Amino acid sequence: MDYAFIESSEDGLRKRCKIELDAQETTEMIDEIYAFYAAQAGIDCIADQAGSQTQDKLSGDLGERIAVCMANQCVDGIIANEGLPAAMEPVIGEMSELREGAPFSCEATICLKPTPQLTSCDPVRLSMPEFFVSDEMLARNIDAIVEERSRYVDDEDAVVVSDQTTEVITLHTAKSGMEVQALTFDSIVYRTGDGMLPPQIDERLIGMSPGEEERFSFVITSKNFLGLDVDETMDADLRVERIVKKEIPVVDDAWVKENIPGAYDVASFHEMVRANVTMRARADYDKIKGEAAVNALASRLPELQVPEGYYDYARSGLLQNVTAALSRQGMSLEELYAAQGVTEAQFLAQMSHRAQDVVRQGLALDAFALARGVEVDEDDLNLAAAAISPQGRAEARKMLEMNGRSYQLREMAMRSKARGLVMDEAIVQSA
Fold first, then answer.
1. 0.85 cut: is pTM over it?
2. Which residues are CB-neighbours of 140 under 8 A, at least 6 positions away?
3. What CA–CA distance (Å, rounded) separates 103 from 19?
4. In terms of Cα–Cα distance, which of 85, 125, 110, 15 is closest to 369?
């Protein structure tokens, strides 16, 4: 591969380059990328057959996708060769027609990070409490475990449902004659007012007796595909089966042996809980400490003029992470806004503010790594890939390499290593 830089922006944060591949290099890259796409599409083929089979499997824009992928891989190699501090994906410009057995050329603009210097690389000082696990924290976790393993019995003192009772209910809900699965179940334990059901259900429950049934309709407001509020009428059949309460057991050696795997008496149960609580609390403490340490480091940066696009890029990444996390939990962004008590505009403003912090923290870690001569090796890269996909580390690395994003993995590994050093060296002063 031959390349040359043909233009730089006045601030030095953008470099445009011209890239040329000879016919053999082009053919080898096409075959490799075709085979990769074929594997991604679930096609079993050898490299020299991949082109036609993948073209049949994927959409007709495959040629352009291959060309863009080739251009990104070339830029990735330039970034590594030149040691450039890439800030985000390159902007691919003009590309020649992609043909096997013919040369390939393209232009690309590489976006670079500012490289400011810290005023000091001395250990940061943090004002926060020392790590410890209190007896109160331990007791709360033990109580929660015991309560989780408690059984429900009839509450003889409760005659009717109130806002303080727990009951076993059956609910069948339909909309326009079609069952609403999220509001249909048989004999579930429900505590009045816990928010799992619409408030109209709670209103009907209060005052009902065991064995009593209610048939009624109610209206809920939801968003349609245009994001507009629409009212929907629900028809419900509600029955109170029982009013119950939890029977908390006496925690003795016999109960522990029967209910707590891995523990044989009360003392070993408490030690097991202490170990688990300590591990979780340490992880939370280290997360808070790490954030405080990097913030303190970032305060040593000079004032910077960072292009607004860099903040937009960081915000987009944060939003993608939030959306992915919500998807795993079966939640929508609208439900998140409601849970946090914010509007969409307020949430996006929070993301913008967080994006500015992320950019500044990242630049501080870059400056620290450069000043301290931090280097990353294969183990560091593998750890960074595992952070992306714990069960698919090798696949994560391959995906980044094939899409020309190896520089992002190196950045992750470098910043993670720098963060670790900053945390280890931080001086904690009791708050």
1. no
2. none
3. 11
4. 85
